[in-house]
Design a protein that fits this description.
Length: 132
């Protein structure tokens, strides 16, 4: 099944889901070190390897991090070629002064935002659904 590309349908079917747990971004020196942690995801940059993993795992391994995030999944099946979904979501959150880091995966978009703002962000995302 291919993902949806129509922005109106994407927003109407957003179905945000707040995943349990606290998550953090950490920086490592190698993809081998990243893989050994079994992170939620990792990304290779010139400066190092960014991993997103449960806070408990980072604490267990003695890794440093600067903030604690909530993880919200937009459960609508969005196409990687969809235009405007990330912009609409990030704009709505920015209007409420909530920072948001988006990770696009094959089926869904995933939002990582300050833990303290999780419930407020869910309310904002639900309002996007109602408006469409």
């Amino acid at each position: 099944m291919e993902g949806e590309t129509d922005l109106g349908k994407l927003l109407a079917g957003l179905k945000p889901q707040l995943n349990p747990g606290e998550f953090v971004y950490c920086l490592l020196d190698s993809k081998e070190a990243a893989a050994s942690l079994e992170p939620l995801c990792f990304f290779l940059e010139r400066e190092g390897v960014t991993v997103i993993l449960p806070r408990a795992r980072a604490d267990e391994m003695g890794l440093s991090y600067s903030s604690v995030c909530a993880w919200i999944t937009l459960t609508v099946h969005s196409s990687l070629e969809a235009v405007g979904l990330t912009a609409a979501v990030s704009h709505a959150l920015a209007e409420a002064n909530i920072s948001c880091n988006v990770v696009a995966a094959f089926h869904h978009d995933h939002l990582f935002l300050p833990w303290k703002d999780a419930e407020r962000a869910m309310d904002i995302l639900r309002s996007l659904v109602k408006a469409n």
